């Protein structure tokens, strides 16, 4: 079912993002985590797409199985960096054949080890190009796009980045999911500025639990998001005093409080970056009041 139609119902929700395990022998464990999370009745689930399209076959197979075998409403991520029109059509055709009618249109990161990679296809330089192509060629497909409360690292300013989001809306984007953030004020200020700019599509907050201190520092260096200094200090103290488990416990508790605050302040729902970890997500949404 089209995510835009579900969002139009106005019910508070949880949605989930997964990534394809690299090795097929890890898939049974992955689907075990999916089964544990099914009790959350997520509005939709999304599946990421590797740098340069490196995991597109796995993405296709996973979204098909999530729909067919698990009764979930899936959305496939799709990146256009380095892609040809034929490859994009092949992917979108496969989604249609699997009965999947939701796609997240992204520019994507360059292939690993190629930071200066330049897309060869001038028609697909930006996510807005991909959104426009999908909207024209696959009008039945519901298109999600990305938003950046603290701006994309390559954007000159937040104002410029909001203009890019407006363009993605104009080219067919039906809703946006934000980059991770750890200060909810950033999200609400971003939504307010988007509305003032004429962006009317739903903007869903993306929440990432910190389960590992080293990995979050690496992620932050790539995505441009910030972490409150006092929270980082608490994480480092937890790591020094109790190791990985203490970091995990603090990260889950913080994400739990973050989600509660988002809902209480009027966010339409929360989109959890699950890291394929069911128990952490179950702990985060515990007692989350979606009836507000």
Automatic annotation (TrEMBL):
Cross-referenced InterPro entries: FAD-linked_oxidoreductase-like, Mehydrof_redctse-like, MTHF_reductase_bac
Reactions mediated catalytically: (6S)-5-methyl-5,6,7,8-tetrahydrofolate + NAD(+) = (6R)-5,10-methylene-5,6,7,8-tetrahydrofolate + NADH + H(+)
Any Pfam family the entry gives: MTHFR
UniProt similarity note: Belongs to the methylenetetrahydrofolate reductase family.
EC number: 1.5.1.54
Keyword tRNA-binding: no
Protein name: Methylenetetrahydrofolate reductase
Cofactor(s) the protein requires to work: FAD
Transmembrane segments: none
One GO process term, biological-process aspect: methionine biosynthetic process
Main enzyme class: oxidoreductase
Annotated CDD domains: MTHFR (cd00537)
Superkingdom of this protein's organism: Bacteria
Pathway(s) this gene product operates in, as recorded in its UniProt entry: Amino-acid biosynthesis; L-methionine biosynthesis via de novo pathway; One-carbon metabolism; tetrahydrofolate interconversion
SUPFAM superfamilies found in the cross-reference section: FAD-linked oxidoreductase (SSF51730)
One cellular component (GO) term of this entry: cytosol
UniProt keywords, alphabetically: Amino-acid biosynthesis, FAD, Flavoprotein, Methionine biosynthesis, NAD, Oxidoreductase
Molecular function as annotated in GO: FAD binding; methylenetetrahydrofolate reductase (NADH) activity
């Amino acid at each position: 079912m089209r995510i835009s139609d579900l969002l139009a119902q106005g019910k508070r929700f949880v949605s989930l993002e997964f990534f394809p395990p690299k090795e097929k022998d890890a898939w049974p464990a992955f689907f075990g985590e999916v089964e544990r999370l099914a009790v959350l009745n997520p509005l939709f689930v999304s599946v990421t797409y590797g740098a340069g399209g490196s995991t597109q076959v796995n993405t296709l197979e996973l979204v098909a199985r999530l729909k067919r075998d698990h009764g979930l409403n899936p959305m496939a991520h799709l990146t256009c960096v380095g892609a040809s029109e034929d490859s994009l059509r092949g992917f979108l055709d496969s989604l249609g054949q699997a009965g999947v009618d939701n796609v997240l249109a992204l520019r994507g990161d360059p292939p690993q080890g190629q930071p200066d990679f330049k897309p060869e296809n001038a028609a697909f330089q930006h996510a807005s190009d991909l959104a426009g192509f999908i909207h024209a060629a696959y009008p039945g497909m519901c298109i999600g796009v990305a938003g950046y409360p603290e701006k994309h690292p390559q954007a000159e300013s937040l104002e410029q980045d909001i203009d890019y989001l407006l363009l993605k809306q104009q080219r067919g984007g039906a809703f946006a999911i934000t980059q991770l953030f750890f200060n909810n004020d950033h999200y609400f200020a971003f939504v307010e500025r988007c509305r003032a700019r004429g962006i009317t599509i739903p903007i869903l907050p993306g929440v990432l639990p910190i389960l590992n201190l080293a990995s979050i520092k690496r992620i932050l260096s790539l995505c441009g998001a910030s972490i409150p200094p006092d929270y980082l200090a608490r994480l480092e103290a937890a790591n020094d005093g109790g190791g990985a488990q203490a970091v995990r416990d603090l990260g889950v508790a913080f994400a739990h409080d973050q989600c509660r605050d988002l809902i209480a302040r009027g966010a339409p729902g929360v989109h959890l970056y699950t890291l394929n970890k069911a128990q952490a997500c179950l702990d985060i949404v515990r007692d989350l009041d979606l009836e507000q």
